[in-house]
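User: Good morning. I'm curious how NDP would be positioned relative to this chain. Could you predict the structure with it bound?
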Amino acid sequence: MQEEKTKCLIIGSGPAGYTAAIYASRANLHPIVYEGMQPGGQLTITTIVENYPGYPEGKSGIEMMDDMRRQALRFGADIRTGEILSVDLSQRPFTCKTDSDSIIIADTIIIATGSSARWLGLESESVYRGYGVSTCATCDGFFYRNKVVAVVGGGDTAAEEAVYLSTICKKVYLIHRRDELRASKVMQKRVFESPNIEVVWNHIPIEILGQIEGFSKYVTGVRLENTKTKEEKEIALDGVFIAIGHHPNTELFKGQLALDEENYIITQAGTSLTNVKGVFAAGDVQDRSYKQAITAAAGGCRAAIDAERFLKFQD
Ligand code: NDP
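Assistant: Good morning! Here's the predicted structure, ligand included:
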């Protein structure tokens, strides 16, 4: 099995991973970056990023990630399309297995694996996943031109997806379990000002309705339950977008790193240090409260500086 050594392995891309790669490259750590299943991370499936400083007109998430990637390449980061399948953090240097059956021996690891969209957990949701049920409006919205869809959730993601879909679809229901949105005021305003978005307050989906005909399946509606009265009702529609938050991608590290009760990596306050010396975490994988592109990028910067200092001063 092929084996190679590196001073710094960065697992994951997105603003945290790419920023860590920029800083680690400039510090001559010659980082190897494994981008994971979704190179560029979640910003590549968003629309316009309007709150990242330096872009007064906003910037497409895909372009922003491509810029960061190219910036890291420019300073010599070894960016690879692929995944790390397992890590052994029990001794330093750390042994990591890649999906191309090679081994990387890393003096330090920066974890920037981000988070993934959560699902409702309904059986019918799994039946129609990819056939009318999606977690990505920018990926799948195109299929619902002039149709009726619902977005489930009340946060910024749900609001953003609803507004985006309202420009494509005939009608968008925004289904939220409470009577006020969690989304930022600016996004709420856009939702309320969109004439074809109807907010369905105090409801949760309890079943995705659809038809299965031979090999083809499609969604025909959703059954909702009123969270206060428990009354049920059905809405006819063509697609459902789930936008109820994210969970951290920490499967790889379970049992090896300290995680909190929601499986976020625990880092020492104000740093990227995990409970294992030489392992650092940045971005959404360790952030349960901010989850912004700018905070992820800042975390990546911090992790690279922490890794550099660790290598310089390690015991
Ligand atoms: P959030 O955790 O902010 O919101 C999740 C929403 O889903 C909440 O409204 C929550 O309801 C609802 N929800 C959770 N679980 C369920 C369930 N089982 N059934 C029904 N509803 C459920 O996640 P987001 O992905 O929206 O945002 C994550 C972070 O990313 C936030 O910090 C957000 O600000 C940020 N973000 C910023 C953007 C921007 O600035 N442009 C764009 C997108 C995200 P309840 O409110 O009752 O808890």
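The chain has seven helices and 19 strands. Residues 3-116+246-313 form a domain with the FAD/NAD(P)-binding domain fold (CATH 3.50.50.60).
Let me know if you'd like a different ligand tried.
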